[in-house]
Amino acid sequence: VLNYASVHPPVHLLRYTVVQDISAVVRALEQGVKKADVDPAVKAVVICGTNGTFSAGADIRGFSSIQAGDRPSLASVIDLIERSEKPVVAAIEGMALGGALEVALGCHYRVAHAQAWVGLPEVTLGLLPGAGGTQRLPRLIGVPAALDLITTGKHVLAAEALKLGIIDEIMEENTIDAAIHLANKVSGQPLNSRRLSLKQVQSLPNMDAILSEALVKVKKQARGCLSPEMCVQAVKASVQLPFTEGIRKERELFNLLLSSGQAKALQYVFFAQRAAQKWTTSSGASWKTASAQPIRKVAVIGLGTMGRGIVTSLVKAKMSVVALEQDQKQLEVGARAVTSLLEREASKMPWIGQRPDACDPALLQFTLDFSVLQDADLVIEAVFEDMALKKEIFHKLSAICKPGSFLCTNTSALDIDEIASATSRPHQVIGTHFFSPAHVMKLVEIIHGRHTSPITIATAMGLAKTIGKIGVVVGNCFGFVGNRMMAPYAEQAVFLLEEGCKPKEVDQALEGFGFNLGPFRMLDLAGLDVGWRSRKGQGLTGPKLAPGTPARLRGRRRYSPLPDLLCENGRYGQKTGRGWYQYEKPGARIANPDPWLHNFLIRYRDAHHIKARFIDEEEILERCLYTLINEGFQILDDGIASDPEDIDVIYIYGYGWPKHRGGPMFYASTIGLPRILAKLQKYSEAHPDIPRMQPSAFLKKLVFLGNPPLKEWMSHAGHQSSKL
Ligand SMILES: CCCCCCCCCCCCC/C=C/C(=O)SCCNC(=O)CCNC(=O)[C@H](O)C(C)(C)COP(=O)(O)OP(=O)(O)OC[C@H]1O[C@@H](n2cnc3c(N)ncnc32)[C@H](O)[C@@H]1OP(=O)(O)O
What we know:
By secondary structure, this protein is an alpha/beta fold. It folds into 4 domains: 2-260, 2-enoyl-CoA Hydratase, Chain A, domain 1 (Alpha-Beta Complex); 297-474, NAD(P)-binding Rossmann-like Domain (Rossmann fold); 501-607, N-(1-d-carboxylethyl)-l-norvaline Dehydrogenase, domain 2 (Orthogonal Bundle), CATH 1.10.1040; 617-639 and 642-716, Orthogonal Bundle (N-(1-d-carboxylethyl)-l-norvaline Dehydrogenase, domain 2), CATH 1.10.1040. Helix 16 (454-466) links the parallel strand 16 and strand 17. The longest helix has 22 residues, at 617-638. Helices cover 46% and strands 12% of the residues. Ligand LEDWP2DD is lined by residues 16, 19, 22, 25-26, 47, 49, 54-61, 74, 97-100, 103, 121-122, 125, 131, 271, 274.
């Protein structure tokens, strides 16, 4: 891990590589600094990394073994560095993240390569910079900038770090030589002014307001996630307390976070997101053997809400795009919408000024001419959810597109195999389920059909990565993973209304749990007509419904006609200004309880002889969340998702599941599968007409096997993951 290398005497170079064994690095760093301190031949020290990287910080896997008492050791080594009578210079190449930046902050000088970047990502892992970072950074760059970096975990490039004052010098090349040169130059000069622990935090007249506004902001954004709030508390301590007391406070807050459980969940998500990129299918295809084909030109069919967002994402990633509509008017409306989205995106990216080509309109062509699509490497069809229309388009694409083109359908539920059957190249057909708004949401479900080739999967995954999305490979079934699990959740929410809840009560319970939006606000945003169209297509309502079908039963299953009745009343959600809530005008966003709906529910319950009862938050949460989780177990058993991590990534990045709870399957593992099973059994006995409440056989099996850890679940699934 450590080389104590004499490079240009009298400067000594301490080199570090990957920080896997945290305590070994801390010990080695301590020994290196102590040795340099007592060696009379050494006049200065440079700390750098190897292979062009200072350090990405600690190995996250090592956090689980950190004991509360271990923590101060890096902090004390950083103190040792800072107290050294010989100047210590950090030479930052590549990146300095987390503990590594804290080490650099303990150095007296910091030199960085122009392409290097720095950051304190601890907050995203449920922690805070606990080796003095929350006390030194505000002393170096002031409270507002330090709060921004520490509470978001964002990375900044060397140029910005220089502007902020984190870095003293930037080099285009030979960063280590420059650091050695600087170390030689400052050798013998007084160091007190370079010791951040001795500096005062720059006082600001509105400091109290800055701190309290920061707290309000992070509380609002974090929805129950503790680490951003603790970060603000720690920075506040740097303002209000002397350095050593501030460090004590930082340690106390760090230990609290370390034992909170949220840190474990967030660290799980870090690895789950990366594991999802290593896709496999139940037939044995995998990322290891399939390579993505290069995609230069993409065509998008349909410029509705989804198509516009998809085009925007592609252009932002500098891909050449052809956007097709069926008539001139729709083409013009769509083109205007895309232009405005691109302008809005550009205004959010100030660095775009330095990269004038970032949203280059020359990359984008709007057309009505289907034949322009013939040389596209990949086509994404994004018309509305109508199987006949999609099949017609795929039939045409199959005839027009060059033989190597990949054909993707943006669908949230439809059968990929049926769509592929309209082509002569089903192996090149794949589902790419984007989430709305598609230029913002990170997730893309990549759905392989029976005939989809591994190269097609790899190419769709590659495209997702290129445009900054997180692709997750899933199997083909109605609703795939995300919407299939959403169905029992939304169904429970509506049953709860029938039984006595108000939409706001259900939403508040789930927003309190940490969702960005509760189910009714989410449905109003997505548009109630989407589900209505799908239910009509399935014959659950509308003209295809058999006459004489009881209002609240489909076969022997409980059914709620409430969402259909709302649509029949023209209440489609936000877009019509009325849905489960009322809005000031169509398109407005603030949801207000609607007395009309309240009276409607009373009349509905009377008509169906339902006696309203009080339903507490616990029941709301358990019925909505546990039925969703139950479907997740069924999906794993069916092989539609290859492991629980994939489901969790889908829920976090596509459905607003609170990240600090680690995704539904991780959450289930923290609650304990026996408890989930017992609750589902209780509710399904009370509601025998709701099949989705019947515990899945896989869940029962795992409980029978003694509630094994999440990592072992798939070795017991009916459909075993080929990742094993
Ligand atoms: C020279 C001075 C050295 C001083 C060193 C001091 C060290 C401190 C030791 C004491 C510790 C005290 C407390 C410290 C806390 C911290 O440091 S918290 C900060 C931890 N670091 C991070 O959060 C960085 C997380 N990683 C990333 O952001 C990115 O991975 C990356 C580094 C920017 C690289 O991105 P990219 O190129 O896109 O690759 P990825 O796909 O993301 O990752 C590649 C594989 O590497 C694995 N990985 C990455 N980071 C870590 C990590 N920190 N710990 C463990 N593993 C990591 C990642 O999982 C990928 O793995 P595979 O999927 O298996 O390939």
